[in-house]
Each structure stands twice: as C-alpha cells, then as structure tokens.
Amino acid sequence: MLYHLIFLLGTILGAKEIFAFTSCYMHGRIAQYYYCNLTEVPLVPNDTIIFWLSFNKIRQVNASSFPLLVQLHTLEIGTQFVFPVIIGKAAFRNLPNLQTLDLGDNKILHLDPDAFVGLSHLQTLRLYYNQLEESILEKDYLRDLLSLEYLDLSGNQIKSLRPHRLFYRLKYLQIIDLKNNFISTLCEGDLDSFQGKPFLLFILNSNQLYQRITMDWAKCGNPLKNIVPGTLDLGGNGWTVDIMQHFCTAVNGTPIEFLKFTHHIMGRGFGFNNLRDPDKDTFAGLARSGLRLLDISHGFIFSLNPCVFQSLGDLELLNLHHNKINQIQKQAFIGLGNLKFLNLSHNLLGELYNDPFEGLHSVLQIDLQQNHIGQIAGNPFRNLRGLQLVDLRDNAIKTLPSFPAMNILRLSDNRLISLGNQNISATYLDLERNRLTNLGDLYFLLQAPDVQFIFLRQNRLSLCDKSINIIENNQLVYLDLGENMLKLVWDRSLCLDVFWALSKLQVLHLNNNYLTTLPQDIFHGLTSLNRLNLASNQLSHLPPGVFPESLKTLNMSENQLLSPAPEVFMTLSVLDITHNRFFCDCTLTTLTMWLNQTNVTLAGSENDTYCLLPPVFTKVPLSSVALHGCNEDELQKPLQFSLFIFTSVTLIMFLTAIVIFNHFRGTCFVWYKTIAGALMKDHKHAISTSACKYDAYLCYSNRDFEWVQNSLLKHLDSQYSEKNRFTLCFEERDFLPGEDHIINIRDAIWNSRKTICIVTRQFLKDGWCVEAFNFAQSRYFSDLKDVLIMVVVGSLSQYQLMKYKPIRVFVQRSQYMQWPEDHQDVDWFLHNISHQILKEKKVNKKFNVLEMQTISTIS
Ligand SMILES: *[C@@H]1O[C@H](CO)[C@@H](O)[C@H](O)[C@H]1NC(C)=O
Ligand SMILES: *[C@@H]1O[C@H](CO)[C@@H](O)[C@H](O)[C@H]1NC(C)=O
Ligand SMILES: *[C@@H]1O[C@H](CO)[C@@H](O)[C@H](O)[C@H]1NC(C)=O
Ligand SMILES: *[C@@H]1O[C@H](CO)[C@@H](O)[C@H](O)[C@H]1NC(C)=O
Ligand SMILES: *[C@@H]1O[C@H](CO)[C@@H](O)[C@H](O)[C@H]1NC(C)=O
Ligand SMILES: *[C@@H]1O[C@H](CO)[C@@H](O)[C@H](O)[C@H]1NC(C)=O
Ligand SMILES: *[C@@H]1O[C@H](CO)[C@@H](O)[C@H](O)[C@H]1NC(C)=O
Ligand SMILES: *[C@@H]1O[C@H](CO)[C@@H](O)[C@H](O)[C@H]1NC(C)=O
Ligand SMILES: *[C@@H]1O[C@H](CO)[C@@H](O)[C@H](O)[C@H]1NC(C)=O
C-alpha cells in the first residue's frame, strides 16, 4: 500500500517515466535502476548515456561515486527514500557532459557549495521539493552552469528573491520555476541580476506574494524594472482586485507578453458582496506593456464591468473560464479590437443581451460552453464577421440567434426543438443531444453550400416536414444521424430522398434508429460513401444492391440479420456483423463459406458472430458451426426423387400418349402447328420490337413485393442476375418518385411490351392494381395490342375473379396463367411466361387491311 502511494507520489511530483516497477538492468546504453533498494551508485559501462537512479536509498553522492562517464547526458537521483541526501563536493566531476540533472523530491537535500562544479554543459537542473532555502539563489552554487536553461526550484523554502550576481552570466536561462515557495515580496532592485535576460517563463505561482505583509507600493517601485519576463505566472497568490491594481500600476511600462493570474480571488463571486469585481482601473497599469495574452481564469468574477479591459488594446487572447461570470455589462469588451480568442466557458451566464461582444472586431473564437445560457436577445454574433468558432455546448438554448458563416459551430447539449428559420452556415456543425424532431431541418441546413460535417446524434428526429430540396452541389462529407427515430420517418415514406443529393458524403451514421427495413433506394446517390454505420437497429434482411458500390466499411453489429447473402458485402474491406441473430441452417452455408475465405476484415472477436437459432446452435460462433452435411443432402434428395418421378412419368406418359393419340389426333396436330408457328414468330418479334424500354411491366400489390422479388424478379430480371435476359419494370425500382402514381403506371405500360399482372387476394383489394389491369387491357381495344398477361397466384375461386369487370372481360377472351402449386413446375412456368413476354399477340379478328396496317406501324 505504502509502496503504491510512494509510487504514485513519485509519478505526480517527479513526472518521471516509469517503465516497470522494478527494473534494475542496463537497457542498451540506458541504465535503469528504479526501485532497486540501492544505497550506492552502481557500476555501469563507461558508454552509458542515461542513468536513472530515482526511488532508491542513496544517502550520499560524492566525487568518487561515479566513474568517468564521458557520454552520460541525463542523470536522475530523485525521490530517494532516505534523508537527508548529501551531494558532496564536485560530486559530478566525472560527468563532464551532463545536460540534465534531476535531484527533485529528495525531501531534504544538503548541497556542498561546490556540488555542481564542472557542469558547464548542464541545461536542465531540477531541485524541486528539497527544502532548499533562498541561499540556493543568493550564494554561488550555480556558478559553473553556464549553459543552464531551465531551473526548477518549486516547492522549496525560498522566502526571498535576491539572486546572486552570477545570474548575469547565465546567458541562456529561460525558465525559472519558483512555484510553491514563500516569497512574500518582490520590489525594485530585487531582481537586478536578472536584468536584460529575456525570460520565456517566470513562475511565481502560489507564493502568497504581497499577501502576508503590508505593502508600501510607492516605496516598492517596479519589481520588474528592466526585466523582460515573457510569460509571467502570478496565479495562486490570492490576489484581490486591490493587489492586482497596485501590481499593474507598479509594473507600468514593463513589456510582458503573457500574464497568468489563474486561481485568483478577484470578484465578488455568486451571492457575495464583500469583494469587488475588477473594473476599468484594475488593469489600466498594463496599458503600455503590450500584453498579448491574459489568463484570469479560475476565480470569482461575477460581473464583467464596463470598459474593464479597455487599456489592453494589444490583447489577442483572454481566458475568463471558470469564473462566476453572470453579467456582461454594456461595453465590457470595448477596447479589445485585436482580441482573437475569448474563452468564457464554465461560467454562470444565463442570457446574452446588451450586445455583449461589442468592440471585438477581430475575434475569431468565442467559447461559451458550459454556461446556462437560455436566452439570447438580439443577434450578438451577427456582426462578428471574422468569427471562425463559436462554442455554445452545454447551455440551455431553445431559440437560435443568427450567426455569420464560420468554420465551427458547436451547439450540442442544448434544448433546441427546431432550428427556426435561422440560416446556419458552418463547415462543422455540432447539434448533438438537442431535441430536434424534424428531419426536414437537415434539408434546411444543407442549403448552406459549405457545410461538411453535421452531427445530429441523440436528437428525436421522427418526422419529416421539408419545405425545400437539398442543393445539388453540397459539400457534406460526414453526417451523424445516430440514435434518432428515423424508422418513424421512413415507415411513412417521408423524406426517402434525404441522401440523394449527398454525392460527396463519405461517412454516414444511422445506428440506433429502430430501423427494421431499409427503404428501397434510400442510399441512392451516395456515390462517395465509404463508411456506413447501421449498428443497433433491427434489420433482418438486406436487399441485394442496397449499398453503394463505394462502400468500404459497414457496421451491422447488433441487428437481427438471419441469413444475409454475402453478395451485399462484396465491395467492403471492413465488416462488423457481430451480435446478430443468425439462423444456422443450410441456407447460411453461403455466408459461412464466404466468411471463411473472404479478405474482408471482420470486426470483433470470432465469438461475437454467433448463431441464435436453431436452439442447439444458440451462441455457437459461426466459425465453428458445422454445416458440412448440407451439400450432400441437397444433391442426394432430388436425385432419388427425380429417379422416382422419371420412371413414373415415363410409364404414365406412355399410357396416356396412346389414349390421347387415339382420341385427339386432330388437336395434337393443331398444337404442333401452333407451337412451331409461335416459335418462329417469337424469333422475329424479339428483334422487331426491341424499341420498347422494358420487356414487361410487373404489376402487383405492394404487399406481395417480397414474393414477386423472390419468385419472378430474381429469375427474370437482368439486374438481379446475369443469366436473366429481361428488362423488367416495377414500382419499387423504376417508378419516378414524386410523380403521380397513375402516370407512373401508364408510362410503365406504354414503355413495356407486356404487362404482367400478378393477381392475388391483395391485388384484388388494391384499387391501383385493378386500375392498372384495366388500363393494360384497354390497349387491346384502343390500339389493338394484347399486352396483358394475367398470372393468378394462390387459390382464388372463379367467382372471386369474376367479380371484377376488367378481369371478367379478360377471362372471357383469353387464357390466364396459374402459378404452379408444385415447386417442380416453377421452371416450366417461368419458361412459359418468358415465351409469353416475347410473343407478339396481334388482335386478328375481323379487321380490314387498312386497320392491320395501322397496327403494324404502331408496333
Ligand atoms: C527492495 O526491498 C523491498 C523490501 O525490503 C523488497 O520487497 C523488494 O523486493 C526489494 N527490491 C529489490 C529490487 O530488491
Ligand atoms: C570503456 O571501457 C572499455 C573496456 O571496458 C575500454 O576499452 C574503453 O577504452 C573505455 N572507453 C572509454 C571512453 O573510456
Ligand atoms: C563517498 O560516498 C561513499 C558512499 O556513497 C562513502 O562510502 C565514501 O566514504 C565517500 N567518500 C568520501 C571521500 O566522502
Ligand atoms: C476554453 O477553456 C476551456 C477550459 O479550460 C478549454 O477546455 C477550452 O478548450 C477553451 N476553449 C478554447 C476555444 O480554447
Ligand atoms: C436565409 O437565407 C436566404 C437565402 O440565402 C434568405 O432569403 C433568408 O432571408 C435568410 N434567412 C434569414 C433568417 O436570414
Ligand atoms: C459497430 O458498432 C458497435 C455498436 O455501436 C460498436 O461497438 C463497434 O465497435 C462498431 N464496430 C466497428 C468496426 O466500428
Ligand atoms: C475454411 O477453409 C479451409 C480451407 O480454405 C478449410 O480447411 C476449413 O475447414 C474451412 N472452415 C470452415 C469452418 O468452413
Ligand atoms: C484475397 O486476397 C488475395 C491476395 O491479395 C487474392 O489473391 C484473393 O483473390 C482475394 N480473395 C478474395 C475472395 O477476394
Ligand atoms: C471463444 O470462446 C471459446 C470458448 O468459450 C474460448 O476458448 C476462446 O478463447 C474464445 N475466443 C476468443 C477470441 O475470445
């Protein structure tokens, strides 16, 4: 336990890299001796370059501790578990090229006045937490360290700051860290030996500076006279507005780049009145300092008073986060004409009014996240033309103000119900976790031509009321619509065209949207789509060709896929199908075989892609389900069956042939002639009528689509399989969306050589279907073409059919086809229907020659 604690302390305070708990060995030219209970410096090869000796029990380091290690550049002897640690005279004389020396956190360190002699190449010296007193700076311990750049004396007992004259010579000194000491005062003259030294960073944080004594500021003078402290960190000193004002007045004219006053106690806080908020005089003394960055975060400022920053005309960055700011008074930021970055996050702002950002002509970024902003009066951002980023995350905004066009606009975690009619034009637009319900808002957002990223995750998108179409040349590349309720939108056939114009979109998230089916053509137009996330929906079936060909990464995890066909995954390189509900029977073999040999990277562990049914296979990984038996079974059964059929059929045919021939010799002959004639005609017409766009229009009730697709489309339509030769037309694919339905039907009939009506119970109930039937039939009378093929599926009685006049008329003049009840007849049937499609039936009744000619010209 103690060990852990010490270890933790070591990591926090020492910030040392600890690769292993106990590692006492040479690692190439690195000697790694952490936690080795060493009491003396061990012997290491003379070419060692790094020597880590922290977390040991070495009490003493003296001139004989190290052999000559010419190449050593880094030595750590921090955090010894014994104290005091004594560094003797010339302890490091054998390490002439040492650059980094870490003696930090030794609790009590006794330094010989000559401890550091000879270290003329030392650049970094860490002496933090060693109970060192001001003598370390006031005496000449560091006289040889002519290369010193970084001196860390934080956490010691230094009570005053009057550095030795030797500091004049440390030309490269850039960073002095005196954090957590006890320096209570600093006046003109104290830092004379730092004069002319352009510091990068001077840290006097947490010293209770000017706190514990009554200051006579007039006598004190300018503590930074002739000093150039690039970044001056004075935070954590408990300064009130008064001390701040005195200090700023005192350093009047000293050039300072960056002032840090984080963790101050300025401001009256929330609900108090005894302390003041800074006002227009507080920072006035800095007017001539050329200050560019000011950090007064982590304090108690409640109200930003008028003109409080007016003298800081050069300021570019102002950090005010983590205060208690509730009020931005009128003209609070006046004078900050050069400010680029304003951080007001983590405050108590409840509303924005009074034109709060007045005067910020150059501002690029405003961070207002984590406030309580509910009301925004007027349009405070509208005139900030250079704005690139506004962060309003985690507020309580219900109504948007208007924004100028910008790069990044973050509005997540607010209470937006609708976007109103505000034009939002941002390259990166974050609207996650609001309460938006209308997918139509997306159409609206995509009116802005530059938007590239839109995040709408975790809203309530469940309806779609669009007033406008998405512009064609939009640049959207990333769209997150996860965790909404898009099922409710698409189930009502609303906004099915939402992605059609997004030709640049690369990433689309649709996870957790309760989707049970993917609407046909929903991804139509996503020609650049690379990554699609459909995880955590309820999809059980993926229609072939549903995904764009550019798709590379697909997440189908946590859906209800039963038995997907591998064809839909062909374009992918990464696929996640973990946690689905695979039904492991023979139909799944195509998938499992594909999975076994595919190059597609499968996400997740093998064990996460498992069967759910049948019960014997529940949770068994697909990779280990044995479905070998399937192939042989499938082959054997039909073989036995067909042998049986063959013999029986031969026998019966032989018998019936005799009977038929005897009784219907004449009819047989007529049949023969008809068939032969038809075959030849087919041949002719296949060429002559190729002018039609489609071979046939399939007319059926929408509810029968699944059946039609499996039974007919897959075997006839050329887009379903290369073996098929017909170009079919059907509503789900070929109808123009938005066009009047009846016009679609008429066009389909006119553009197709034949119209095949799949008459089922559903068909008869569907008014559109009967209408289409009627229309196709009317061509028989109006332009003398018999284009109608009627296929009855399922058991429909003659009576049921005859109830409908168009069907009655058809049945009276022509034969309809009946879908075979026996599966073995399906091929024959399909062959037959193919014939019918090709066959040109002319109405050859009692028409005269002239009429016949008209018919041929039409066709
Ligand atoms: C150091 O000493 C402690 C306790 O005496 C012991 O548990 C640990 O194993 C020792 N470490 C090494 C590297 O010898
Ligand atoms: C290091 O020690 C080896 C023998 O152990 C010696 O040959 C070599 O000269 C030494 N190198 C230096 C730089 O002292
Ligand atoms: C140097 O330190 C070692 C222990 O690390 C000690 O044994 C030795 O006596 C010391 N030498 C001198 C000269 O103090
Ligand atoms: C504003 O300050 C917060 C808190 O430190 C920080 O997380 C955020 O990144 C800052 N904003 C900007 C725009 O830098
Ligand atoms: C939004 O932009 C359109 C055209 O760009 C403009 O007609 C409309 O007035 C703007 N709406 C608002 C609220 O600025
Ligand atoms: C797919 O989505 C699931 C659920 O959100 C997630 O756990 C998984 O990491 C995703 N897979 C990939 C490959 O990103
Ligand atoms: C995967 O394929 C290899 C040969 O490519 C075969 O040996 C192995 O049995 C197959 N595994 C499964 C589960 O089908
Ligand atoms: C998998 O990759 C190898 C080598 O790149 C290639 O030969 C093989 O055809 C690929 N297999 C499939 C199914 O694409
Ligand atoms: C899968 O499950 C089996 C049995 O539970 C286990 O032995 C194996 O390590 C698991 N594999 C992975 C990759 O987790």
From TrEMBL:
One of its GO terms (molecular function) is transmembrane signaling receptor activity. The chain crosses the membrane at residues 641-664. Residues 1-20 form the signal peptide. It comes from the Eukaryota. Residues 692-837 form the TIR domain. The lineage of its organism: Eukaryota, Metazoa, Chordata, Craniata, Vertebrata. This is Toll-like receptor 5. SUPFAM superfamilies: L domain-like, Toll/Interleukin receptor TIR domain. PROSITE patterns: LRR, TIR. It is a single-pass type I membrane protein.
